[in-house]
Design a protein that fits this description.
Elements: H1 2-7, H2 13-22, E1 33-36, H3 46-53, E2 56-59, H4 67-72, H5 79-82, H6 88-92, H7 95-99, H8 103-117, E3 119-120, E4 123-124, H9 126-153, H10 163-181, H11 188-207, H12 218-249
Parallel strand pairs: 1-2
Antiparallel strand pairs: 3-4
Length: 250
């Protein structure tokens, strides 16, 4: 989205100027006005665009669907065009986008999970790789469900402001459900490992929604990620060590 791109300097003054020049926009239109989305203002300097390209920046509405009405109203906006909402439906439509990024890393996770799950007193057991691997993959899937599906849908009702915390809390609930599902075949170390994996993945995936909200800032997101990612990575490491160690204790 534009807000996220502007915060990351991908939708920037230089990018706008370069695109204007590359498309030779001055030869396409007779006016010198450029309508840019309101949420791109954090990354674009209007006066620098004017100086470099000759085009005057007019800040348009938040949503692209309002552009036609904005133009017909002589470039004037009403209150609704300037307001950002983040309803349940608007959060839900983002879920497929997040899930679309997961197939490739999931292939590597599948390989790692089955290899690590088979390690034990017999050096490597295909039976354990399959049986324990399915449990670990269930925890992985639970983390995805909690962080990429449940967290955005239930966002206003999950305690905490940081998305990493919201994701972790939803991950705890799903993680406990995973542990209860397999409780008869687990030792405590395996239970802890499954819980940590679910929580870490859920927390990480929930952070991906920070760039889609109307109440976060680039600096705040960066600060949250600097704090959360080391903890998430640490939880995954502890879970892996515990999971492999448990293979020698069963």
């Amino acid at each position: 989205n534009v807000w996220c791109a502007a915060g990351k300097a991908l939708f920037s003054t230089r990018e706008v100027v370069d695109r204007v020049k590359q498309t030779m926009l001055n030869k396409v239109v007779s006016h010198n006005q450029l309508i840019l989305p309101q949420l791109g203002a954090t990354g674009v300097s209007a006066h620098q665009v004017k100086k470099a390209s000759g085009f005057k920046v007019i800040w348009g509405p938040v949503r692209a669907s309002d552009i036609q009405h904005f133009i017909s109203a002589d470039n004037h906006t009403d209150k609704s065009m300037r307001q950002v909402t983040f309803s349940t439906l608007e959060r839900t439509v983002l879920i497929p986008v997040e899930l679309s990024h997961l197939p490739k890393p999931t292939l590597w996770v599948l390989l790692a999970v089955f290899l690590l799950s088979g390690i034990g007193t017999n050096v490597f057991s295909l039976g354990d790789a399959w049986y324990r691997g399915l449990m670990a993959l269930t925890a992985y899937a639970g983390g995805i469900l909690a962080g990429a599906v449940a967290a955005p849908i239930l966002l206003p009702w999950i305690p905490g402001r940081a998305f990493a915390i919201k994701g972790a809390l939803s991950g705890v609930i799903v993680g406990l459900a995973v542990v209860l599902l397999f409780k008869s075949g687990l030792i405590w170390m395996e239970s802890l490992a499954l819980l940590l994996i679910t929580v870490a993945i859920s927390s990480y995936l929930a952070m991906n929604f920070t760039g889609s909200t109307p109440f976060t800032s680039p600096s705040g997101v960066e600060k949250e990620m600097r704090r959360a990612i080391p903890l998430q990575a640490g939880a995954v490491l502890v879970a892996i060590v515990g999971w492999v160690t448990a293979g020698f204790l069963n």
